[in-house]
Amino acid sequence: MNKLNYLLIFALFATSCARNPVTGKRELTVISEAQEKQIGLESDPQIKAEYGVYEDAGLQSFITKKGNEMAAISHRPALGYEFKIVDSPVVNAFAVPGGYIYFTRGIMAHFNNEAEFAGVLGHEIGHITAKHANEMQRKQLFTQLLLIGGMIASEQFRQYADLASNAASVLLLKYSRDNESQSDKLGVEYSTEIGYNSHYMAGFFHTLQRLSGQSGAVPTFMSTHPDPGNRFVEVNKYTDVIQAAKNLDDAKLMENRDTYLKMIDGIVFGEDPRQGFFENNVFYHPDLKFYFNVPNGWMTVNTPSKVQMAPEANDAILTMELEAGTDLNAAGKALVERNGLSVVESTNTTVNGLPALAILGDVIPQDQNGQQGEAIRAMVYLINYNGAIYNLSGLSYKKTFNNYYNTFQNSMKSFNVLKDQAKINKLPSRVKIVSAKRDYTLQEGLKDYGMPQARFNELSILNGMELTDKLKTGMLFKVIEERRNK
Ligand SMILES: [Zn+2]
User: Fold this and answer.
1) 341 C-alpha to ligand 1 centroid (Å)
2) Are 189 and 119 in contact (CB under 8 A)?
């Protein structure tokens, strides 16, 4: 058990009574402010290690400035906040107790003005000021923070036993529907207070709704949040109420479309191939120079520390990560011990000429109360390549494992040395901000800048517009530029 887990157990048993900063009501405080801070301090380095920080000085200074400005007018101005952009293409934002707020580069690319950003910023600050972590189910908080903490020892198996966790849900702390609605309201209040028109915040829920209809993109920000269609209506209504109360209207509040778009010109869009990328059911890693086959139709998530793949049914998971050391048998022994695996079979073999160790084993997961879960079977291939050990692990419930046996084998045994220069030299796509050359529709504008028809739908969502919406001459909009160095 690592330090974070100890801390959480401590935190979860220490309760007291205090006033909620937002509602003013007395409530049972499960986590003190010092403990909140501690959770944030412990989680932050793990989140950064897991996703990487997206380096962009301009954007970083913008989110810090707006974040601090909003924190100052919030219900907990003295807490101390940190605002970061993580290097993930997923469209998401999340808050961790203690004042830690994260945006993905994916969500930053999808905002079309400062007002949308400010609304989501307010929503996330709201989770912290209203102390929503307090109200999380004990088990849920535990599981979710473990998820963020990453794959730690036998926790790895433990979380797979919990169907709440799939490869795509890693990025988010789950709050209740009531908490989400309250955070939406706080998002309206806070962003209005610093001068933004929160009707645009409502509009961003429409973008999330459209994204959820697209295959491949999994906007987790939305999947664990209430129905975005409903939020669109509620946030618009509440904006009217707040604006009226403050004697404001849209004309007196900021959108700041152009300033925002210019700030995100050149932001990496989609996967960054330098960290590995998926293409036609194959995962390629240009830096580490390997590839392997991905099961057809599985959801995929690639983070700097691991690749995760899961089927729609969510009853199996396939992961790839680096194992410590360089000795196959020592690594195998450590892995078995770490996960409390009962070995069924362990074989020294080769994969495409690379030395490998194949392990089949079982584990019965236990939750934090010592309750036994459904038995899990694991297939692990440890492959020695280029002075490192690659761990490909496939897990499923014992009763469903056979359905996945061949799928796991096909992926693991396809691991091979990457020599294809086209794959090795692939550069990331980036958002490019361009201006309309004349009055035309978004669709005509996209065509004008040579965008392929196959990407029109994706690009209309990225622009927060319909293809038939009109662009005026000189109006800025987004296109995607392939293979450009910034
Ligand atoms: Zn939320």
Assistant:
1) 37
2) no
pTM, to two decimals: 0.75
State the amino acid at position 430 in one-letter form. R
Residue 162 C-alpha to ligand 1 middle, in angstroms?
A: 22
More confident residue, 303 or 421: 421
pLDDT at 369: 66
Q: 412 CA to middle of ligand 1, Å?
A: 37
pLDDT of residue 257: 98
Domains of the chain with CATH codes:
3-136+173-269 (no CATH), 273-424 (3.40.1000.10), 432-481 (no CATH)
Please enumerate in sequence order all residues whose Cβ is within 8 A of that of 76, keeping only pairs 6 or more positions apart, or say none.
21, 99, 128, 129
Q: Which residues pair with 323 in a beta bridge?
A: 389
Asked if the model's pLDDT at residue 304 lies above 70, the reply is yes
**Distance from the alpha carbon of residue 180 to the mean position of ligand 1, in angstroms:** 5
Instruction: Give the mean model confidence (pLDDT) for residues 54-69.
Output: 97
If you measure from the C-alpha of residue 169 to the centroid of ligand 1, how many angstroms do you get, rounded to a whole number?
13
More confident site: 41 or 71:
71
Distance 141 CA to ligand 1 centre (A): 14
In this structure, what token pair is assigned to residue 430? 């980036």
Ligand 1 mean position to 74 CA, how many Å?
16
Report the distance separating Cα 77 and Cα 373, nearest Å: 43
CA of 118 to the centre of ligand 1 (A): 14
Residues less than 5 Å from ion ligand 1, measured at CB: 180, 183
Tell whether the model's pLDDT for residue 461 goes beyond 70: yes
DSSP state of 465: S
Instruction: Give the separation between CA 424 and CA 111, rounded to whole angstroms.
Output: 31
Ligand 1 centre to CA of 40 (Å) is: 17
